[in-house]
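Hey, resending since the last one bounced:
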Amino acid sequence: MSDAPNVQSFADVRQLGNGIGNDYDQMMSMVDKIFRANLNSRPGIWNDLGLLEVGNGMGLAEDSTHFLLWCALKSSLIIGNRQQLTKQNLDFLRNKKALAVNQDPLGQPVRLMVSHFSPGSIARYGVVTGDYCSQANESNNYLWSYNNMTKLLMHNSGRCLTVDMRLKWRWYTYLQTCDINNYNQKWHVDWSGGHINLLHPPGKFVLSTAFCKARNEGTPAKVTSTCLEQLEFLLHRDNEHFRIKNTFTNRCLTVGGSPDLQIYSGVLSDDKMVAVVVNRDVVANQITVDWNSLPNIADRKVSYDIVNVMNDSVTITSIPFTTNIGPHAAKMFIFTPK
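The structure tokens again:
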């Protein structure tokens, strides 16, 4: 990798790594590597970030993020599909606006302009985490209630503890709108034994609160944190809510962190600009695109037509603007001077 800048003397494409597989975290780690090692593409030396893994099992949101970032970073676009592509896969692989960004004559990749993401961080916004119980005595953010009929474990915010099982290699616990028909919100609370287990599949998911992720005890076994599972339920003074304490770590179950959001932006030919907003979180979030998240060439005196390349029926006419973005999803916007 240290010789990468010299590649231009004998080639105009350099391969970074050995591909990402159908792994969202590896895909985003590849993007992180580019900016960490200052390996941006430029005319005469293009980055090959690996085959496009669209349709190989990541999910539509992850596939779309993958494709949009590869386009914006000016990577080679080589379909590495090993399965039958769906119509939805083909729709965004054929998206003319995104492909035009990849093939723009200026050849300038986007740069990371805004980042609220810390690689390797444990606490994420809306995701169950933990803090020392001495800080929890008077905080409503540590209070939970349990309905023995519905089997829902509700946070004091009114949302319910939920398991995200979309990623086979890692399961997350986070808060979501309560739904009595959602099996990923059904819990068995063992008051005397000090355990909380997901009901379906029975015994396959045990909640623990050392750093307050969770441990998948199914097959294949994937450990997201290791900690003792003995829990203590501390009744709150209102006799309806309680705190969930890990007796070994003295941490209590709560919600913490900040949204894992990023904005990449860059310049295109004809004074256009492009921005890709990425939600690396496992819950939906809002993100605001303002002048500071755009390239320095952005002229605040100029009006722009702003188009979402995946939904060009909606045009945004002012900066700043805020957009909703789903978990692991991304949106690409093109800014055209009026």
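The chain has a mean pLDDT of 77.

Sorry for the duplicate.
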